[in-house]
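Progress note, project year one: complex with heme C.
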Amino acid sequence: MNKRMNRSLVIAVICLVLSAGATADPRTVNEGVFTRDQAKAGEELYKENCLLCHDKKYFRPVLKRWEGQPLGIMYTVMSTSMPESNPGFLSEKEYVDILAYILSLSRYEPGDTELDYKDGALNEITVEARQKN
Ligand code: HEC
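Model obtained:
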């Protein structure tokens, strides 16, 4: 294969990867992105690890500030810097359960599938103001 063909092949593959990312079903936090049980599990972890410094009202203005951003950014911030006394102390699953609980605190509706941190799934979910039904 000559050099030129090689390069166009590489570009084609990159385009394919990018378009696959773009079509992956974008959702918002209003679309039932966590389960009730998951938020329950998160509540226990939250009481043990976060409540000491953040009361339950703390996250409402935080979520408000994150509106329009992917949930993955907020997840990364909390999983790498919290708890302040011991950053990164919990597992990814535990952080994502806590995030589900934080969403439930702001009265976002639960759904049928758990919030998942894998494969950048959290970056496909956008934070937006709660929609009242
Ligand atoms: C020892 C105290 C302490 C503990 C425990 C703690 N935090 Fe924090 N947290 C802070 C401080 C201090 C800040 C930064 C100042 C602020 O914004 O209030 C902060 C900020 C944050 C933010 C950033 C908010 C923003 O501005 O976007 C998030 C999210 C957060 N904490 C989540 C958590 C979670 C989840 C836990 C439990 C796993 C936790 N924190 C435990 C002290 C703590």
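Residues 3-23 form the longest helix (21 residues).
The beta strands are 27-28, 125-126.
No further modelling is planned for this target in the current period.
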